[in-house]
Amino acid sequence: MAEVIVHSHWDREWFVPLSVTKRWLGQLFHGILTAVERNPEYRFVLDGQTALVDDWLATLDEEERQQGEAKLRRYADRLTLGPYVGQVDWRIAEESAVRNLALGQAAARRYGEPLACGWLVDNFGFSSQVPQLNRGFGIDQLVAWRGFDVADGPSVNLRWQGSDGSEVAVMVLLDSYRNLMRLCDHPQVAEQRLQLEIEKLTPHSLSEHIPLLDGYDLDPTVEDPTTILNVELVTPDTLLERARGAGMEGWPLVHGEQLSGRVVCTFPGSLATRPYLKLQHWWCEQVLRSIVEPLQWLVSDDEPLDEAWTLVLHNLIHDSIGGVSVDQVHHDMERRYEKVQKQVDGLLQRLLERLPGGRGWWAFNLNPSPATVAFRHEDAIVTARVRGGTFGRPVVETHALKTVDEQVNAWKWSNEHFTLDFDDKGLTIGEWCLRPLLVRDKGDTYSDGFAEGLPLLPSSLAITGRSDDGVVVRQRWESEQVGLEIEYLCTSLPTVELRTFIDGRGCDYALLLRLEGEGQVIAGMPFDRVRRDDLIAYEEPRGAIEPFLVAAREVGECRTFPCKDLVGLEQGDVTCALFPRGIYAYTTHGPGRGAGVVLQRAVEWIARSDVPGRVGDAGPAMYVPGARCQRIMELEVGLYLGPTEKLTQWKGAFCTPPMILWFSGDGVEQELQFYEAPGAEFAALTQGKLRLFNGGDGPVMAKMRKPATEVTLAGEPLGTFDGAIAPHEIVTVELGRAMSGDEGGKAELIYPRLWWQVGEERARPDKRIVGHMRVQAQDLKTQARAAQERIASSEGVERYRHEFEFYKLERHALELELSAVLVEGADVESDSVLALADALNNLRVKRRSVEFLLATLAE
After folding, report:
1. Distance CA 365, CA 210 (A)
2. How far is CA 567 from the centre of its chain?
3. Number of neighbouring beta carbons within 10 Å of residue 857
């Protein structure tokens, strides 16, 4: 008997905001609960995310909510709950990925047991540590779609080994997560469609168990295919366990990150779309994991920050953080980030008042290695040095900074590490050059289309500050599209701090900060470090994979990749690198060799049909002026040149800098060095649990203040920590209590400066574009009516073809119509907008349903 998974992939916010999609949840859950009550064998997958359940319960009054929760508990064995809070972007999520699992499993346990399987059916690719992260929470099997390159040997079954060696079983959805969607719409061909899908997938399965999925994006209509077919409804964990029953020895093995877009897009352009959102995410994750929670540990404060983390996770869902939604969605996201900021700021001030410490300078360095930082404070450059894993007195030097205004054509700065040569193009450091590059971008929110260079004219180069230890250099460039200013803080350190100020004005461009020169490209990633080629050349898929090319895919060359906190060019024992705070994309696009972070992408359509490097339908054709990023934004980037063996240490000092504190009162002095582990990197310190990772290829040894217990990511004891951290391993160690929490000494956090610097959105809709959209929508509706007339006068397959054409035209018309009213400021909860949204969503589903029907009848 064929096994079928019934589900709905629920994009929480996308072409409409959450306030609209929540209204559809009532229909969805009514259908689910009705089906469960009617059919004792019914199973439904709640898209692997507890946010779906929480959003539905939030729409109910108190009595309805209690009834809803009771039914979820009653039917928990047949409604999969979790294991995640949301379907996040795993290319970006680091500590938030851990919280996604921890909070997701905890939320699921309010009703029953979490789904014992990862459900990752539409995420935009995966980092190398996804196997290790899931196994840390007891999950050793996943269902996934995007990112896996199975073109040369399509297989439903894979073993995926993460960079540390952790392994999970993967069921790959070769034919997408919707291959049996809306079976009940056309019962006359349901059996034929089922058998064709079985015949299509069986040759590529190493067991008799194959992925047959009845569900679609945001489809609130619930089906029970057992009413028309003799099939068994199963959950994904059951299906995978059955597939693994005969053993996994013959399953193909894949390694590391899974980012391929050759079979189905992973949308690398989304990594730099609406960069202000990525910056806000970085800061929220940074402040929570490396400032507030560690300070809580110091003063024995156990107040959980689950609400703040949940808000961060809601924004990290792939369509949200990817910037590929309507402007209203991203306005809502900014409000959530601001809510996190307000919650955290209040708690931070209370914690600082409780910190023990005597009058003067103190530091809290979470890094496993010693850290030295230099920063501007009042009228001085302050340099502070502190041991690794220490709360105590730092070594501080203060150098008076004189404000000057010396206009120069070129400038040279030297210290013991390197010489910087500034000119109107940027700067030269050793064998490398750092240059801003402005290029035309022919892409949309999903995919970049970097093309020819655009004029970016140097405006000024000036020395604006001098001290006996360093200088401040400010450089400006101008263009019609964007204004760029970079302020360099040059000191005695092997790192230079760059504060980049971007004034977005135009559209269809990308602004890159490019490190030019030779070397192996290295990139930081969540809990890891990777080496990559300059490009991926996507060959056209041929042969057995062709029947499975059912979605948008990437073609030609891919030169854009994810990163976190590091992009560098390595030449043996010397590396030149950028440490970008809150930038998650780099590209090798540009003249000559090199790699550059993407500071800004400015586009104005969610999806276009003419994007170079992509074929197929990526998303709705909706106009989004906010994606032009016409606002002022500040980004911070470190520039490093030095020994490769010191790269980890200096990256930690810049991207997770020690907290430099000034105590104005006379508190009790309590110094503490709790660990050191040179070569490892700090990840989090929460409720007494220290999380570290080793992104290198060699082992690292940690020394703890006292014997400590190692625990899993989920917090389960593993035994006494022996100090060994294997290559690419994530370890969590239980530290216990830190200090007594005696009366504090009135601490002020001097460095780092917290939170993002993002100005107000200035983009306004172009009335000409909106007018053209309305005209185009009317023309499409005229064509749709003609197709509708042909439906009435035809039958059989021809009738379904006209039906498909009608739905396709009407859907496109409604996308333009809804987009027009949204950009003109209509109330998203007005009756007219809700009616448009309902009609569009209904047509999206019907169009895809008829498309699958036609594919069946064509066989």
Report:
1. 51
2. 17
3. 16
pLDDT digits (tens, 9 = 90+) for 465-476: 999 989 999 999
Write out the E strands in 479-627: 482-490, 495-504, 509-516, 520-525, 528-532, 536-538, 553-554, 556-558, 560-562, 567-571, 574-581, 585-587, 594-602, 614-615
- Sole residue written with tokens 């397959």: 797
Rounded Cα distance between 728 and 730, Å, is: 7
Query: What confidence tens digit (pLDDT) does each residue in 494-540 have?
Result: 999 999 999 999 999 999 999 999 999 999 999 999 999 999 999 99
What type of residue sits at position 442? K
User: How many angstroms separate the CA atoms of 484 and 510, rounded?
Assistant: 12
**Phi, psi angles (nearest 5°) of residue 548:** -100, 10
The C-alpha angle 634, 636, 641, rounded to 5 degrees, equals 150
Q: Which DSSP string corresponds to 116-174?
A: SSEEESS-S-B-TTHHHHHHTTT--EEEE-TB---SSS--SEEEEE-TTS-EEEEEE-T
Distance between CA atoms of residues 605 and 772, nearest Å: 14
Q: Are 365 and 388 in contact (CB under 8 A)?
A: yes
Q: How far apart are CA 467 and CA 381, in angstroms?
A: 7
pTM: 0.97
The residues, ordered by sequence, that sit 6+ positions from 750 with a Cβ below 8 Å of its Cβ are 375, 377, 382, 660, 661, 662
The average confidence (pLDDT) of the chain is 96
* Phi and psi at residue 126, to the nearest 5°: -140, 140
pLDDT tens profile 160-192: 999 999 999 999 999 999 999 999 999 999 999
Structure tokens at 631: 């606002």
Phi, psi of 816 (to 5 degrees): -65, -40
Q: Are strands 574-581 and 632-643 parallel, antiparallel or unpaired?
A: antiparallel
N residues, the chain: 859
SS (H, E, C) 47-66: CCECHHHHHHHHCCCHHHHH
Number of C-beta neighbours around residue 737 at 10 A? 10
Q: How many angstroms separate the CA atoms of 222 and 318, rounded?
A: 24
Amino acid at 126: F
Token pair, residue 835, equals 């009616």
**From CA 136, how far away is CA 714, in angstroms rounded?**
6
- Pairing between β-strand 360-365 and β-strand 157-161 as defined by DSSP bridges: unpaired
